[in-house]
Amino acid sequence: MFRRSIQEYFKFSKKELNGILVLCLLFLLLLISPFLYEPHFFTKPINIDEFKEEAAAFEASLKRTKPYSYREISTASELTEQKAVYFDFDPNLLPESDWRKLGLSEKQIRVIKNYEAKGGRFYRKEDVQKMYVISKEKYRELEAYIHIDPSRFENRKEKSGAQFAVTKLMQIDLNTADSLSLQQIKGIGPAFASRIIRYRDRLGGFYAITQLKEVFGVDSLKYAQWLPQLTLSKNLKLISINSADFESLKKHPYLNYKQINALIQYRMQHGPFNNLQSLGKVGIISEENLRKIAPYLNFE
């Protein structure tokens, strides 16, 4: 009985026998295929020396884990330039050819010359180090050779002071000056002159020179630069607050549309305004607005 079960287990149909035969043939082909195709393949011999060189280069590239900084890149570019020749020099008087002799690249020289073209000067040797294109290492190489004559700038300051004293005598009235008059002030060109006049017309005149800071583009530095040449006459165009219509009021920069509408509605319901306190009853108009617009109001 056991023998019969074994026979039944290993008994195959004709289809199964064919499948086993095909499988065996495929297995045989896989075994002999390397021997059939080996002559057609040519392997390149391994060069041990070349392999060692590539491995060493790869290991060297892994040693640098710190990212490059801009100064390091600048320093690397400096090394590619011609060998530096050092000599005593004043950086304010140095032509491009001499900067090249000191080992600076074309990009570094261009940045320095742009700085000088915009009025930049080196008053002390440490100012050279402030140029971002000069690395700390390069500055240490140049430091001993930098010689700046301080008397050059003392004479320049004296001359500038004398010029300023003369210019200071040219006083310009901010409320009456035209565009050409305003342009006589150092730092005011046609664009600024036009903006100042347009804003002055909207206000009805300046009651304080500090209002000049409200003009678009005028910062504290420009204001301080212009202030010594400015005077101010009290010549304001007043607003008849009890009769002015919407079109007249909207021109003034200190009132917005909502405030003007509220002001007119309040005036229609409660009658004319007698003083600044009564105008303050218009809730939408803040104390700051009242303070700024007060010099322009006429309650008659």
Provide a descriptive summary of the structure in words.
With 300 residues, the chain is mainly α. Among the domains are: 70-151, no CATH class; 172-231, Photosystem II 12 kDa extrinsic protein (DNA polymerase, domain 1, Orthogonal Bundle); 239-298, AF1531-like domain (DNA polymerase, domain 1), CATH 1.10.150.280. It has 16 helices and four strands. The strands form two sheets. It has a two-stranded parallel ribbon. It starts with a helix and ends with a strand.
**SS-based class:** mainly alpha
First-to-last CA distance = 134 Å
Dominant shape: flat
Beta-strand content estimate: under 5%
> Order of strands side by side in the largest beta sheet?
1-2
Can you lay out the helices and strands and say which pair or pack?
Blueprint: H1 2-9, H2 14-37, H3 48-63, H4 70-80, H5 96-101, H6 106-117, H7 126-129, H8 136-143, H9 151-168, E1 172-173, H10 179-182, H11 190-203, H12 220-226, E2 230-231, E3 239-240, H13 246-249, H14 257-270, H15 276-279, H16 287-293, E4 297-298
Parallel strand pairs: 1-2, 3-4
Tags for this entry?
single chain, 300 residues, mainly alpha, DNA polymerase, domain 1, two-stranded parallel ribbon, 16 helices
Condensed summary:
By secondary structure, this protein is mostly helical. Helix content is 54%, strand content 3%. Among the domains are: 70-151, no CATH class; 172-231, DNA polymerase, domain 1; 239-298, Orthogonal Bundle (DNA polymerase, domain 1), CATH 1.10.150.280.
